[in-house]
């Protein structure tokens, strides 16, 4: 049975009618790569680099970051690796950075907003990333909490300046879609981003106006809320207009039912905690993409998350 399970995990997430979804792992450390691959990951769809800062109580140097990114790429042996630039603020408070206290940190200087104000954090990280790319690491850079077109234009200009200075190769630069404004304006952002990865944790929080950490409202903070799904559809449509691919790296991707819906909505990659991979693959392999498209259409016109959850793909 063990051998069968391992074999199942290594199969692609391909529907019965031959539609393939790419499967990534959300991991933060090179030491986690081997386990993620053994659980069926085809790459890393989200490496949250803030953990390098959160876990140690000091800011890692450019060299230390370079070593970590290089080690992660090496551990993946050329498989895709999406490294997210620092996403600090909101629920990820870093004491040693001594940032100003905010009344509403989730609505404050977090993610890209902080990066654009703190060249001392952004530039060493980008240098470390481009040095790793220059050594052959097959990495992509992703920016969190993008809300507007000028943010990504400015960040890309900084990337390009650093890349040229280091004589490093071009690497894909993508953005997280996790603010409603970004989903609504996905067509405009797609002009400037090589790919999108939807962060359903924050997107759900911001669409429903529910603090993602509030236990009292945890049941209502449901990513299957049709309003969230409609924004995911807008994101996929906006990306398609500029031939960009769309992944999902929020929690919805690791839920087998959520994964079916996302595939039906036209998402091409799902990235999740490694332990969720086997169940997601098994579910996607048991259905037809045509049935998932139909499932997604019915979900978009449902009234409630509960109604969405009660839907079943047609046989
Ligand atoms: C998300 O918001 O869905 C996401 C993947 O990012 P994080 O959970 O790190 O905020
Ligand atoms: Mg997020």
Please give the structural blueprint.
Blueprint: H1 2-10, E1 13-14, E2 20-26, H2 33-38, E3 44-48, H3 50-54, H4 62-76, E4 81-84, H5 112-117, H6 119-134, E5 139-143, H7 149-166, E6 173-177, H8 180-184, H9 186-190, E7 195-198, H10 200-208, H11 226-241, E8 245-248, H12 256-265, E9 269-272, H13 277-285, H14 289-300, H15 305-309
Parallel strand pairs: 2-3, 2-9, 3-4, 4-5, 5-6, 6-7, 7-8, 8-9
Antiparallel strand pairs: 1-2
Helix pairs in contact: 4-6, 6-7, 12-13, 12-14
* Mean pLDDT rating: 96
Number of DSSP helices?
15
Categorize the overall geometry.
globular
Structural class by SSE content: alpha/beta
Order of helices and strands, N to C? Answer: HEEHEHHEHHEHEHHEHHEHEHHH
- Placed side by side, the strands forming the largest sheet appear as 2-3-4-5-6-7-8-9
Tell me what portion of residues adopts beta-strand conformation.
Answer: 5-15%
The Rg value, from CA coordinates, equals 19 Å
Small molecules bound in the structure, each named once: phosphoenolpyruvate, magnesium ion
Report the end-to-end length measured between terminal Cα atoms: 28 Å
- What's the number of extended β-strand segments? 9
Question: Poorly predicted ranges (pLDDT <50, ≥5 residues)?
Answer: none
Main location: cytoplasm
Organism: Hydrocarboniphaga daqingensis
Subcellular location: Cytoplasm
GO molecular function: kinase activity; metal ion binding; phosphoenolpyruvate-protein phosphotransferase activity
């Amino acid at each position: 049975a063990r051998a069968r399970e391992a074999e199942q995990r290594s199969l692609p997430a391909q529907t019965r009618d031959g539609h393939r979804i790419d499967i990534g792992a959300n991991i933060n450390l090179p030491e986690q790569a081997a386990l993620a691959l053994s659980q069926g990951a085809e790459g890393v769809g989200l490496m949250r680099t803030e953990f390098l800062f959160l876990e140690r109580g000091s800011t890692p140097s450019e060299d230390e970051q370079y070593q970590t990114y290089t080690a992660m790429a090496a551990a993946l042996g050329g498989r895709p690796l999406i490294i997210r630039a620092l996403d600090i603020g909101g629920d990820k408070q870093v004491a040693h950075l001594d940032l100003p206290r905010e009344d509403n940190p989730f609505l404050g200087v977090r993610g890209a907003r902080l990066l654009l104000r703190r060249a001392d954090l952004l530039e060493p990280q980008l240098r470390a990333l481009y040095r790793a790319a220059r050594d052959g690491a097959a990495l992509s850079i992703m920016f969190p909490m993008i809300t507007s077109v000028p943010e990504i234009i400015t960040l890309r200009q900084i990337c390009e300046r650093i890349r040229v200075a280091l004589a490093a190769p071009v690497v894909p630069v993508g953005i997280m879609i996790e603010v409603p404004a970004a989903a609504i304006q996905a067509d405009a952002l797609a002009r400037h981003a090589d790919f999108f990865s939807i962060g359903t944790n924050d997107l759900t929080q911001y669409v429903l106006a529910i603090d993602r950490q509030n236990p009292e409202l945890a049941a209502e903070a449901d990513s299957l809320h049709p309003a969230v799904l409609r924004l995911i559809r807008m994101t996929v449509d906006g990306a398609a207009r500029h031939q960009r691919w769309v992944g999902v790296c929020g929690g919805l991707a690791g839920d087998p039912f959520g994964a079916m819906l996302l595939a039906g909505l036209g998402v091409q990659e799902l990235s999740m905690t490694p332990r969720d991979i086997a169940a997601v693959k098994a579910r996607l392999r048991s259905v037809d993409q045509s049935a998932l498209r139909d499932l997604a259409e019915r979900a978009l016109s449902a009234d409630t998350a509960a109604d969405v959850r009660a839907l079943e793909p047609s046989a």
